[in-house]
Each structure stands twice: as structure tokens, then as C-alpha cells.
């Protein structure tokens, strides 16, 4: 079985199986038709840190037998609302708010979007909505998502 080495922006190396790598549209397109198909080269992930990469690899390894996602086609004009979907229990546990802080979840959702791990991205969005946004007043959301120690400079 071929494994690939992912080099993170904090210089960690994380291994991922070929089957699990297929869950990322970005990584899959990077290795298809190149010398990297044999797993001999490292894939640089300049936008993702080591801890976040490990979480993504864990998710991909669990879902490696699932069908590989296809790139979404973005059409112009009004889009119909997305159909509702159920999140499997393993994914609910994996993304449990008691296990992931808001900053960790933000890193995970950004990395899942960057690497095009489609279902992980959708599950993260759903968890953020369910755990942090749904039925909360705007004032509470502003306080929760705008840390007081964040200083914006012009």
C-alpha cells in the first residue's frame, strides 16, 4: 500500500494512505499523473499546521472506503438550497465541541476547504451551526466569535 508524506507549515511530516488521500480533491489532483504517485515525494502543505493536518488525516483514514468526492460545479444564477444531510455518529463524535475549541474548529474548517475535503468541510459547517450559532442572540454570537484580545490595526 502506498503512503504519502505531507509536510505542514510548522515542518511536521504526517503520513496518509493512498486511499485516504483520495478524500481530498486537492491532494488527489496534485499526485495524479506525476512522479508523486508512488509516494516517494513529500507534499508541502504551506497553509496547514501539523495538528490540523493530523485531524484531517484521521478523518480521511476513517472515510477511506467512502466514494471519493468530485469537484462541485458552480453555476451562475440563483442556487437551490442544499438538501439536508445526516451526519454519521462517528463524525458527530469526531467534531464534538467538547473535543475541539472554536479556534481549532476554525483551523479545521479552513484546512478542509483548502484541501477540498468536501464532506469534512460540510460536517464542520453543520457542527458550527448546531453547536455555536443556532438559537443564539446576535450579541452572544458577536462576543463568542470576536475575541476581546484581537486588535485590528489600520
Automatic annotation (TrEMBL):
Region listing for Disordered, in residue ranges: 63-88
Transmembrane segments: none
Pathway as given in its UniProt record: Protein modification; protein ubiquitination
SMART domains linked: Skp1 (SM00512)
InterPro entries per the UniProt record, alphabetical: SKP1, SKP1-like, SKP1-like_dim_sf, SKP1/BTB/POZ_sf, Skp1_comp_POZ
Keywords, ordered alphabetically: Ubl conjugation pathway
Residue ranges constituting the SKP1 component POZ domain according to the UniProt record: 4-65
UniProt record similarity statement: Belongs to the SKP1 family.
Name recorded for this polypeptide: Skp1-related protein
Organism: Steinernema glaseri
Organism placement in taxonomy: Eukaryota, Metazoa, Ecdysozoa, Nematoda, Chromadorea
